[in-house]
């Protein structure tokens, strides 16, 4: 296969505050990880999938893989993540197959991301040779503030975008960017890639690819699925 998708699911979910790591929290009958994987395996062509799980949840992740992709286990592996998202992506990159040309990195927490976004990002990387991220316009006014909340200035939202995942990259350049980054902490892969001189571009993101971070987000996801009446 020429594309790999690394699904980072090794975070603890501090802000969600559930009893389990966030990717293993239930959303209307399926865990967030399960929902993310279902979206990926609906791609109309085979891809390598690497799930990055917390050390204590590798077996749980394997069970979810078996449930979602029976018969496709050879294309899906589960590895242990690290202390930061950056370390977890690096752990996933380490097991990407030799022949893979394009790597997509996806947050398991963006559990409702449609299959089409994965396909669009993959296609755009192949067409442009650049790093590609799905992104949304900013709808609110933005203020720069000091520690007391006093307003120092404004930012022009027309020039800003909200970055989502999956973020896609030419494999060799992403490997090089991660090797160069060491343990520096970047909040997303596009930052790692750009810091190493990689060219990045955006394609339209999708509102439902929002990241489930807080209890409010999980509730919103339920509502998107029609699970909870208003
Ligand atoms: N992630 C990871 N390894 C880490 C930290 C985060 O694989 N050490 C993953 C999460 O599982 C998630 C994605 O990166 O799918 C985005 O991170 P975030 O939403 O911040 O998740 P958590 O770090 O789990 O949440 P919090 O920051 O609230 O603890
Ligand atoms: Mg986090």
Give me some keywords for this one:
230 residues, alpha/beta, Spore Coat Polysaccharide Biosynthesis Protein SpsA, Chain A, 7 helices, 12 strands, globular, binds cytidine-5'-triphosphate, binds magnesium ion
Task: Report what the structure shows.
By secondary structure, the chain is of the alpha/beta class. It has a single domain, classed as Spore Coat Polysaccharide Biosynthesis Protein SpsA, Chain A (Alpha-Beta Complex). Helices cover 31% and strands 24% of the residues. The protein is built from 7 helices and 12 strands. It has helices at 32-41, 58-68, 85-93, 115-128, 171-181, 189-195, 215-224; strands spanning 3-8, 26-27, 30-31, 48-53, 76-80, 102-107, 131-137, 142-145, 151-155, 161-163, 167-170, 200-204. The strands form 4 sheets. The chain has a 5-stranded mixed β-sheet, sandwiched between helices. A 3-stranded mixed β-sheet has the order 10-7-12. Helix 1 crosses helix 2 and helix 5 packs across helix 6. The longest helix has 14 residues, at 115-128. The model has no long low-confidence stretch (mean pLDDT 96). Cytidine-5'-triphosphate binds at residues 8-15, 22-23, 52, 81-85, 88, 107-109, 211, 213.
Please provide a brief summary of the model.
This protein is of the alpha/beta class. It has a single domain (3-133, 161-224), classed as Spore Coat Polysaccharide Biosynthesis Protein SpsA, Chain A (Alpha-Beta Complex), CATH 3.90.550.10.
List the helices and strands and how they pair.
Elements: E1 3-8, E2 26-27, E3 30-31, H1 32-41, E4 48-53, H2 58-68, E5 76-80, H3 85-93, E6 102-107, H4 115-128, E7 131-137, E8 142-145, E9 151-155, E10 161-163, E11 167-170, H5 171-181, H6 189-195, E12 200-204, H7 215-224
Parallel strand pairs: 1-4, 1-6, 4-5, 7-12
Antiparallel strand pairs: 2-3, 6-11, 7-10, 8-9
Helix pairs in contact: 1-2, 5-6
This protein binds cytidine-5'-triphosphate and magnesium ion.
Cytidine-5'-triphosphate (CTP) binds at residues 8-15, 22-23, 52, 81-85, 88, 107-109, 211, 213.
């Amino acid at each position: 296969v020429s594309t790999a998708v690394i699904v980072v699911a090794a975070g603890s979910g501090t802000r969600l505050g559930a009893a389990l790591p966030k990717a293993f929290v239930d959303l209307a009958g399926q865990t967030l990880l399960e929902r993310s994987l279902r979206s990926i395996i609906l791609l109309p062509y085979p891809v390598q999938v690497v799930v990055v799980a917390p050390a204590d949840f590798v077996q749980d992740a394997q069970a979810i893989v078996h449930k979602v992709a029976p018969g496709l286990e050879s294309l899906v592996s589960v590895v242990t993540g690290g202390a930061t998202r950056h370390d977890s992506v690096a752990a996933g990159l380490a097991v990407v197959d030799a022949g893979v040309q394009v790597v997509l990195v996806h947050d398991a927490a963006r559990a409702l991301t449609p299959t089409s976004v994965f396909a669009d990002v993959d296609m755009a990387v192949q067409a442009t040779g650049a790093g590609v991220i799905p992104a949304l316009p900013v709808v609110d006014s933005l203020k720069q503030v000091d520690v007391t909340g006093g307003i120092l200035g404004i930012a022009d939202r027309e020039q800003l975008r909200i970055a989502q995942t999956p973020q896609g990259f030419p494999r060799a350049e992403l490997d090089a960017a991660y090797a160069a980054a060491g343990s520096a902490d970047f909040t997303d892969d596009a930052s790692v890639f750009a810091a190493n001189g990689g060219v990045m571009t955006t394609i339209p993101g999708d509102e439902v690819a929002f990241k489930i971070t807080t209890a409010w987000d999980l509730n919103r996801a339920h509502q998107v699925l029609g699970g909870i009446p208003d």
